[in-house]
Amino acid sequence: TVGKSRLDDIQWSYKMHIAPYLDASRQMKSFTKEDIEQYIIKLHRVKISESTKILIWQVFKMLFQYATMHDYIPRDLTYGKKYIIPKEKRAKEERPYSPEEQQALLSYSHNHPDKETDTYLAFLLTIKAGLRLGEMIGLRWQDIDLNNRTITVGEQYNSREDCRTKTKGGNIRSIFINKDLLAYLSELKSTRTPSPQNYLFL
User: Fold this and answer.
1) 129 near 148, Cβ under 8 Å?
2) What are the φ/ψ torsions at residue 97 (nearest 5 degrees)?
3) What stretch of H or E contains 89?
4) Collapsing DSSP states into helix, strand and coil, what is residue 66?
5) Which of 4, 19, 90, 121 has the greatest number of CB atoms lying within 10 Å of its CB?
6) Which phi and psi (to 5°) does residue 78 adopt?
7) Residue 153: which residues within 8 A CB-CB, separation 6 or more?
8) Are 202 and 195 in contact (CB under 8 A)?
9) CA torsion sign, 162 to 168 to 171 to 173?
10) CB 68 within 8 A of CB 162
């Protein structure tokens, strides 16, 4: 089982380091490149694990990509920017999440749904299917075969060009859909109104 301290850490990280920075009192349209740089500096200074900081940054970037796709903001200011672990901390921090930690992320995001971004789906696609952020954002329903339980990944979303481009290396791969992901995708397809371009995250 996941310890209470670990669950508290996940909840605290999300609430304290993403939601307050992107709440209604701070319009994303007013962000500048300097604001993004300051946010990265802020993450470096916070006394939490580097793996948690990377997770926070990934979700932060996903929100900006989502806002760009919906024309809430003219361009994605996080494009091309990365949170880089300090060299002296890399050896200690570079490890995959344990199965218990992965399940904690899934449980929390499922029980605390985001009204604008389907964080639970994003975590499912990352943890259960191994998709990268750009690949997730670029997914369309025609890439998903629920009958044969496969996702075909050959393109990713390019926020700068606002279009789908080939994945790095141009390779096409087929990914098996496990039972948890299958159940959620089946539910979404039957209840969600498709977007004009048929994207999962629109």
Assistant:
1) no
2) -65, 140
3) helix 87-93
4) helix
5) 121
6) -90, -5
7) 131, 135, 139, 143, 167, 172, 173, 174, 175
8) yes
9) negative
10) yes
**pLDDT tens for each residue of 121-168:** 888 998 888 888 888 888 889 999 999 999 998 877 766 666 677 766
Q: Which two tokens stand for residue 19?
A: 């939601």
User: Which of 19-33, 62-76, 185-199 has the least mean pLDDT?
Assistant: 19-33
Q: Which two tokens stand for residue 188?
A: 């979404």
pLDDT for res 184:
92
Angstrom distance (rounded) from CA 67 to CA 78? 11
Residue 14 DSSP SS3:
helix
Give dist(CA 28, CA 64) in Å, integer: 8
Structure tokens at 55: 């997770």
71 residue type, one letter = D
Under DSSP, is residue 41 helix (H, G, I), strand (E, B) or coil?
Answer: helix
Backbone conformation region of residue 76, classed left if phi is above 0, alpha if psi is from -120 to 50, else beta: beta
Residue type present at position 147: N
